[in-house]
Amino acid sequence: MSGQPHVVLVDTYAPTRLLAPRFRELGYRCVRVQSTPEPPPVYAGEPVDLDDYVASIVHDGDVAKTLEAVAAFDPVAVVPGGEVGVEFGDLLSERLGTPTNGTALSAARRDKFLMVETIKKAGLRGARQLLVTDPAELADWHRDLGGRIVIKPLRSAGGDGVSFCDTPEESVRAYRSLVGSRDVFAGRNESVVAQEYLSGTEYMVNTVSRDGRHHLCDVWKTTRINANGITDLCDALCLIASDEKVVPSLTEYAGKVLDALGVRHGPAHVEVRMTPDGPCLVEVGARMAGGDIPYYASLGIGESQIEWTADAYVRPDRFHARCGDPYQVRRFCAMVAMVSPYEGTLRGYRDAEAIRGLETFHDMDLLVKPRGRLRRTVDDLTYPVVVTLMSPSEEAVMRDINTIRYLDGLGFYDVEPVEAARTSGCAR
What we know:
Layout: E1 6-10, H1 19-25, E2 29-34, E3 55-58, H2 63-71, E4 77-80, H3 86-96, H4 112-121, E5 129-132, H5 135-145, E6 149-153, E7 163-165, H6 168-178, E8 192-196, E9 201-210, E10 213-227, E11 230-240, H7 247-260, E12 266-275, E13 278-285, H8 293-301, H9 305-314, H10 316-322, E14 332-337, E15 344-349, H11 352-356, E16 361-366, E17 373-374, E18 385-391, H12 394-407, E19 413-416
Parallel strand pairs: 1-2, 1-4, 2-3
Antiparallel strand pairs: 5-8, 6-7, 6-8, 9-10, 9-12, 10-11, 11-14, 12-13, 14-18, 15-17, 15-19, 16-18
Helix pairs in contact: 5-6, 9-10
C-alpha cells in the first residue's frame, strides 16, 4: 500500500491506548491486530477506539491468513500492545522482517518459570523455584525450603492467583485452588510455579530498547500492606527520582535480565525486589507497563514509554542519540489504591471529598461506582478506587498517601449488606 507508512500494534487494550495516537502524531498509520478471536476477560468491558486505526485484523488461528493480511500494509514495525500479544507480536515481526525480539525466547518472556530459569542460566540471581504438577512434591519442596513461598500462575498478570503461603499445607491448598482454573487472559492453569519469597522493597523498572540498547524511562517504588488475608498486597506506586541510590543497581540488573531474555527491541516492564543480597527478579513483561503508569509518568517526567517506544521503532537515530540520559522528575506522582474489606452492594464512599481536598490530589478513578458490586481487595484487579497524587514536593505526596491510608478501611465504605472480610493465612 502506498502513502503513509504503517505500524502494526498487537493487542492494544486500555493500558496501551495512547500508543496509536503517538504513532499517528509522527505520521504513521496504525493497524491493530487482535491475537485472539475474543478479547481476554480482563479487557472485555473496555471497548477499543478503532478510530485510531486504518484497519483491525482479528487472528482466528490461521497464521498464514493473518500474516497475509498484515503484510498487505507493508509495516515498518510490529509493536506489542499488551501481555497477551507478546508472543504473537514476536511471530509477526520475525516473519515480516521488522525489528524483532524473535521467537526463540518468546515462551521465556511469558512463562514465569522459564523466565527465571533463563536468567539463572545467564548467571543472574533468580528465585529458587519449582514447576508444580504434583501436590506431594510441592509439600516436600516447601518443607525442605522452609519459610514463606509464593504460588502463582505461569502466564497471568495483575496479581491474579498469587498466594503467599507459610506452610506446606497452605501451599497445597493454593495449588489445588489454582490448577485447572482460568487466568485473566482465559488460559487454563495446567500447572503453576512455586517460588521462594523474596524479602525487600519491590520496584517497577520501565525500559525501552532498540538494537539491544536499553533506556531507563522511569522507576516506581511499591508500598505494600497485609490485608484481607493477603501478604504483600500492593497499595501504592510512587515515582522515584533517577538519582535515588537504588536506581543504578536496578538499572544494571534489569538490563542484564533483558539481555538474557532476548529483549532487543521495544518496551519492557521489569519487576524487581531489592533484597538484602541485592536485586532479584519477580517477573518481566516484554511490553509497556499497564495500569496507566506510562500516562502518569508522562505527566511527572514529560515523557514515558509511550514516546520512547515510538522513537525506538520509527525514529531510531533519535532514540540512540538520547539513550541513557537520566530522566528528570518535574512532579512526583503516586497511584494509591483503596483496599476494600467488604463484599456487597456499594452505596457510596465516605470521606471521598476529604481525599479530593488533599493538597496533592490529581484524580480519583472509581473502579466500582455506587450501586455496583464491591469485592474484597485481594489483587490488582479488585481495587475499588485508585487515587492519583501529584506534586513537585515528594514529601507532600508521601504525606497524602499516609492520609489516604488513614481514611481508608472499615469506615470508608457504605455497603449494603455489610459483610466483613474473612481472612485466612494463605489467600488469593
